[in-house]
Amino acid sequence: MKYKRILLKLSGESLMGQQGYGIDKERLGAYARQIKEIVDAGVEVGIVIGGGNIFRGLSGAAKGFDRVKGDQMGMLATVINSLALSSALEAIGQAAVVFTAIPMFPIGEPYSKWHAIEAMRHGKVAIMSCGTGSPYFTTDTGSALRAIEIEADVMLKGTRVDGVYTADPEKDPTAEKFDEISYDEVISRGLKVMDLTATALCKENRMPIYVFNMDIEGNLGKMIAGENVGTLVHPAR
């Protein structure tokens, strides 16, 4: 087992499956099974989920919403996704706790680094919602912050592509995949691994990021076992 404690960032858009909106039950179940598999193997798991399948603050701002209110709506979308994932996990016998970065009891427990770590040490999945709890920060930045706070060994970014490429592989068929790449090269090449704030936060705190395709069932377990199923973004060596 390559990692003892991870922070898994899941895309809200991926939860849509083929529906185009909302939460696809089959995709949610596949995620839950993969997560339970690695918890059973002894990995401590923290999770942050985006909210783009329901509402994205930036998109709302573009449509005329106040940016702060739009971002707060996006935070609420992450809570809905977090509750759905916790329910799917509990349905297959995996305990989970939803934490919220803004007070929302009894929907979720107020987020605390120490309470999240304690939950993970007891075999529960710690699902941390609401991003950072502040507007103007993405859930990528929230994921980076939580990964550093809970002292994760690595931040895993589960997406619909199988790693980091020289260009968007969905638009450019000549794009080449990296097995590994440094933060500095990601920034200098302008690659869209995460937003700049999240990338800089991980770089400054030497938090490695592993980008892989979470939508292929089994990839999470393979990655934890040390198989190369994505791209490692690392501090300069």
List keywords for this structure.
237 residues; Carbamate kinase; 18% strand
What does this structure look like?
Strand 1 (5-10), helix 1 (25-40) and strand 2 form a beta-alpha-beta unit. Helix 1 (25-40) crosses helix 3 (67-91) and helix 5 packs parallel to helix 7. The protein is built from 8 helices and 9 strands. The chain has 237 residues and is α/β, with parallel strands linked by helices. It has a 9-stranded mixed sheet, with helices on both faces. The longest helix has 25 residues, at 67-91. Helix content is 38%, strand content 18%. The chain has a single domain, classed as 3-Layer(aba) Sandwich (Carbamate kinase).
Topology:
Blueprint: E1 5-10, H1 25-40, E2 44-49, H2 57-62, H3 67-91, E3 96-100, E4 109-110, H4 113-121, E5 125-129, H5 139-149, E6 154-159, E7 180-182, H6 183-189, H7 196-204, E8 209-213, H8 219-224, E9 230-234
Parallel strand pairs: 1-2, 1-6, 2-5, 3-4, 3-5, 6-8, 7-9
Antiparallel strand pairs: 8-9
Helix pairs in contact: 1-3, 5-7
